[in-house]
């Protein structure tokens, strides 16, 4: 009987924890433990003993026993597969803007382990955001550009950087338990690289447990394609944490965006999520699917110790920006410490049809100056009335981050899950 009682107690505990942790990132344990790194400046990765350069046109394997330096633009071509062993270190070269490009039809199999992640980082002694290029993965899944073809050519070879096609199920490989640190180098007069660029990538590509930290551009950028993204982490990016455009159909789940008032939020157009259907309306095929992001259990926060002071100083902007013709369905997610939580493009007409394309359900809005506004219009009554409807089960709070999350200030293993039993929220 005693054993039965213990089992019942355990089940009740699990059910209770599940109910309390249903919003924001979830897990019975902190899934960031072991593979993530929040102080990459202080890690000594050692010196490179192998060079990666030029084109990789045959199947190639990188070994954990070596440390590789990524020099210049390295292209995986000719449908080759680049396989990287768990625990391998690849160092992006500052001088030559090391960048890894997986061309259309090729694959990257970087399948790390929780206890042995694959790391891409900087070769500078004092590491900073934008030290090297980043990782670019190009596939043949649909995009909404005219002709169904795009080109990602920030200082890259235009003949090797096309993406897009008709293969929704295309497979560009595996990225799992991978860290990308200090990427996002700026190309003068053009733009900054992203930590991880995912362009025209199909749904058979596995993208899980990927952390981009201190990126000079966007941490993650999705250009078209049909993708599943799980347990992504963007940490203190200079620009957007997650950018979606060109008709991407993305399912983002159990993922995190952490911003800093002094690194990221003070930059114009820099947000946790930016959801657009296009960069250039004249190049867009409106007969194709437009951008649709389905996001669940996302945590977005500004990790400031004094959010109100940072907001008053103008250092904090919106967490989410949604442009016209784009759709976002977000559920069971947390937005904490922004000004406001969500900003809608001024071109979006506020009517039932458009609001049905922009859904927020079972949300936890915390410590935001306002919840959902239209750009250039501070009158929030209509939107607040709509999203405040009890049918959506959205709740609002003004709790300090220390009270809201388990322990976001632990220097080694921060825990961004909601703190159990201490969240008191209202439906208004």
TrEMBL record:
Keyword Signal listed: yes
Keywords on record: Signal
Signal peptide positions (record): 1-19
This protein's name: T9SS C-terminal target domain-containing protein
Organism annotation: Flavobacterium cheongpyeongense
